[in-house]
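Quick log. Single chain, no ligands specified.
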Amino acid sequence: MFRGIHLLSIDAKGRIKIPTCHQEQIDKACSGQMVLSVHPDDDCLVLYPLTDWQNLERKVSKLPSLNVHSKRLSRKLIGHASECDLDKIGRILIPSSHRNYADLKSKAILSGQGHSFEIWDEQSWKTQIEKLEKLSTQVEIPEEILKLSL
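-> predicted structure:
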């Protein structure tokens, strides 16, 4: 499980270094093979170990292909997918098209999401968190969350 928030630098070639605490997990799960794509609803990227990505791809392929929501999801998520491998020092290259999509500049936030990561521009991440905080005061808390005991 990938957890935590990490502030990363993006080098001149568009690479980020995956934190050491996650590299062993990734190597064990998929021999360093990852898939990078755009998030279908947010201005960020998603990064999956290849095995988890293949499971997601199977689920998406079972959706009705003529449904507009399925088509949108598939075109964004699967259509922008790019395989990437961790290099010897734990970096991945983010293609320029993906950096442009997420407006990535010099600093990125890598946010563990369980079986995947989100990659955000540092400022976009801060804006998104502020937006969610405001929205959460305007929307009723779902019953499932109220039942959750921490």
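Strands lie at 5-9, 15-17, 33-38, 45-49, 82-85, 91-93, 107-112, 117-121.
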